[in-house]
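Exercise: predict the structure of this protein bound to adenosine monophosphate.
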Amino acid sequence: MAKPRILSGIQTTGDMHLGNYLGAIRNWVELQHSHDCFLFMADLHAITVPHDPKTLAENTIKIAATYIACGIDPAQSTIFVQSQLPEHSELAWIFNCITPLGWLERMIQFKEKAVKQGDNVSVGLMDYPVLQAADILLYEPDSVPVGEDQKQHLELTRDIAARLNFQFGSEDKPILKIPEPMIRKAGARIMSLTDGTKKMSKSDPSAQSRIDLTDDPQVIIKKIKRAKTDPERGLEFDNPQRPECHNLLGLYQLLSNQTKAAVAAECKDMGWGQFKPLLAETTVEALRPIQAKYQALISDRTYLQQVLAEGKEKAQAVARPTLDKVKAAVGFYVL
Ligand code: AMP
Ligand code: TRP
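Solution:
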């Protein structure tokens, strides 16, 4: 029997951080044994806000190297660049024409990002979730593993698929498969080191707020030392008055591969002076092998090129027939 399929991607804006690793890539690594994985670099999404053309391609390659360094195996999984497959933009256009504007106006991520852009909000930024729906539905995945923040986009994706099926398909023969979101509890939301109520994010102007996967040990130690805490003694999960405490314990749990109960027991009598060096060392050691592999990969451009060329071909073999199916259903002239 064929393995169930998953698809996911990361936008090629800025450097990858612990939130991306623990909330996304690490789950994919686990899933790749039991699932057929399609993983891509969302560079079309990266230009929905003003971007620097000098770093776009380099960011794409860096993310590809990060996927592989974190344990995605190109022999098992398909790794590809979104902009290299015109199918994504083409299906997004068709979806544009069946998606009510009101659905997009409700998107939380759009509202948050639009505020930051002031008067300079592009149509592309509003259309971002429609392109994401195309990314997903082209590959007919069973599920889509993402962080909690992407839940609304996945609901929209399901709504778009259902609408297309309703308008152009028949009940016994749906055109597009409707995928399930896959959102893990642990790691779903890694918070900022400077504010335990805010998500760790590439776009936070403060580098102190996040740990990048390429930060060297001294930097990691310093960032954890300066991470916001509270004056209480004894550390605990799930106290809403102590969001930083919950977040840092969660990081320790994930990076040391322990259960929540084990960490809660280990840390319940600790003070920050004891816990922070422990977390720093655990983080440095967890990232060490990833960083070594990343350095080797990023200097082997020939290999990365080859992975992406093969990925493109494998991806297109799935995406093309889906697009053709949709075009035929919508009624386009077929040669
Ligand atoms: P982004 O960096 O926003 O393009 O996100 C790429 C992937 O990482 C998505 O699946 C996100 O849900 C996930 N992600 C990003 N930031 C975090 C975070 N702070 N905690 C958990 N997952 C995250
Ligand atoms: N919007 C996603 C994010 O910011 C990235 C993304 C683009 C994506 N297309 C996707 C994730 C398709 C999953 C599936 O994280």
